[in-house]
Amino acid sequence: MPLTALNASSAAAPLLELRQVHLRRGATQVFAGLSLALAEPRIGLIGHNGAGKSSLLRLLCALELPGSGQVLSQGQDLQALPQGRLRAQRVGMMFQNPDDQIVFPTVEEELALGLAPLGLPRREALARARDFLAGRGLAGWAARAVGALSQGQRQQLCWLALLLAGPRTLLLDEPFASLDLPGQARLADDIAACDRQVVVSTHVLDHVRDYGRVIWLHEGHVRADGPGREVCAAYETAVARELADARGARAGMRVAA
Ligand SMILES: Nc1ncnc2c1ncn2[C@@H]1O[C@H](COP(=O)(O)OP(=O)(O)OP(=O)(O)O)[C@@H](O)[C@H]1O
Description:
This protein is of the alpha/beta class.
């Protein structure tokens, strides 16, 4: 689906929506009444460590269930959708740690897993996986053992698996973290060319600065929400102020001592 169509359909119901969501993880109340409608084709998520970015992504693909409130996919409660095909076609996630995502021993098998919701015979799913790799100049990867890939290569595999599976919304949790510079550029190009909704959590603001929408989470609340350039600039200003205050406080303590 072209991005323009994504935009047009967003006028009806957002692809994903949180309504008054409360979420507790362990001893931490992560969200207390968070509401968000996610309709734009590209959305960035930024904020300090522990702000709630991963928790939000996990809610959006039903890996975490809210204590109260609702997570909706095109107006339907995500929890009420049967696990498997229907849910897999709506939303998929690329994890921060590839080892949380990869389950099969070889690259082609891992890629074929993403096609399982289509109900293809195993042989055909594997053939499609190989074709997909060949189309990206990676034919030699097909039979490679996942355990013999580097961290960055495993992260790349996770992205390829999600891309091949092709849900309507792709949730990417710090997807650039282990990639070398060419890998980061390739992923950025892939995201730019992708005809799906993509939500990216990152600490590298340049990866989302040009997005139409960036959400800055702070301690489980939305601190700013708007065009990427404005929200990233506001975040950078706040971080600079925090650093200056902390340095000032340390200098004050040294003078007092
Ligand atoms: N598995 C867990 N069990 C208990 N609490 C957790 C768990 N994972 C995260 N939390 C808590 O939930 C809160 C939000 O964490 P989350 O991982 O969503 O933040 P984040 O913004 O993705 O952080 P980072 O930038 O470090 O990845 C934090 O206070 C964290 O301590």
